[in-house]
Amino acid sequence: MKLRATDLCKSFGRQTVLRDVNLNLDQVHALALIGPSGGGKSTLLRIMAGLEKPDSGRLDLNDREVIYREKELMAHRRSVGTVFQAFNLFPHLTALQNITLPLEKVHRYKPLEARQVAEEILERFQLSEHCHKPPAQLSGGQRQRVAIARAISIKPKLLLFDEPTSALDPEMTAEVLEVIEELRKEGRDLVLVTHQMGFAHRIADQIALLSGGQITECGPPSQVLDNPVSDTTREFLAKILKY
Amino acid sequence: MTTRTVQSWFWVSPDDRGKPIAWQVLILNWAFAFLLLALICFFSFSQLRYNWNWQTVGGYSGFFWRGWLNTLKISSLALILSTLIGMVAALARRSGFLALQAVSRLYVELVRGTPLLVQISFAFYVVADALHFQDRFTVGLFTLSLFSGAFISEIIRGGIESVGASQLESARAIGLTRFQTYRYVILPQAIRVILPALAGMFANLIKDSSLLSVISIEEFTWNAQQVSALTYSNFECYIPLAIGYLILTLPITLWTQWLEKRTRYET
Question: What is the pTM for the complete model shown?
């Protein structure tokens, strides 16, 4: 995909979260956003997902500007798949219904078609036996996999992950990361906010580090993680690698 | 369903709470509760020296029937109408239009803060009179529905607000419209929170309908009062009255308990 951010600004009240963020990536398949908490990475992802409107600046996806008006945004949100940290799924619906709801109500699938699509994806993720369980009866990792299944079921042009494993223990983290890696190998375009540096290194072809509302460094993992240029990046990496 | 073996006739240990209880134990303990009730009644009435006059009152059973059916009619209509009013008021309270918010707020606070008796008199003798509208039944129905609607709107609003922000965000992210979000995400989750309070409200509504007797709507209480006046008897009218209301309110409570169980899911 082609991703271009031009002078994106966003503040909440008096707090500036993004100041003049610029990104210019021509050929990127997996972009990882890393950086300290409060650095603005989640906000940037949410702007890409159409869940937050920038105060100024523009975002272009595959040479098309994302229009931040409710009507166009709705269409944009329907064309991307977003996975959050936790509490993605609707607790009153089964795993299967969680997937068929957007297919039927948003993408106008017939109930039977929607069911078929959902069952196929759940089977692929080895979740078939759990398809009639509500989220409360699934483990954290299974829940997150169902959430990913819901996101890809609509055939999105882009997948967005906002710290998808932050609420999970190590074992479950592994099972979710495996799924994401598999999607990456399939050639799906994705943007990922993560604290898992090793994982970012393995799957991302571009890594952007956000700190203090700005991109302090952007490039391939071998540069950003192994031979960082900026001091901010070095400090950040030193801090997280210490423990 | 598995029948549990009797472990204790009178106690349930903390670990067993919420699990089904053996029917023998249930019968015994319910019998105990009814026995207590019977003792209280027996003691009170035995001190009363009251000349029971069931036969005369029995001759007026037609009054009770007609009144009971009227109460059933006005309560069920008011139940539907007040739920609708409650929903509209709750949505108005949450709308982006500030004037609408203010209207909803004023309505709820005024109605909840004043006695129904005053509202009924005011609606009938002032408002309906000014509009030259004389149909008591309709005036009564609307007043009662507006009264309950105010409470119901707060119950519904509480239920809607109990649905977490992350749920709304998920709904937005998958591209549901505002209406679809209410229909498929908020309401199904809110219902669970709303039901118990709503059941209590519906039972209240049925009992509150008795106040409509002050504008001579011929409902259950009004009829019982007529019989009481015609036969110079009190308890022979009030006891059937109490039982008549119980027959209406109990099914509602039981029905919602059943619904609650059905809509239960873990979070």
Answer: 0.79
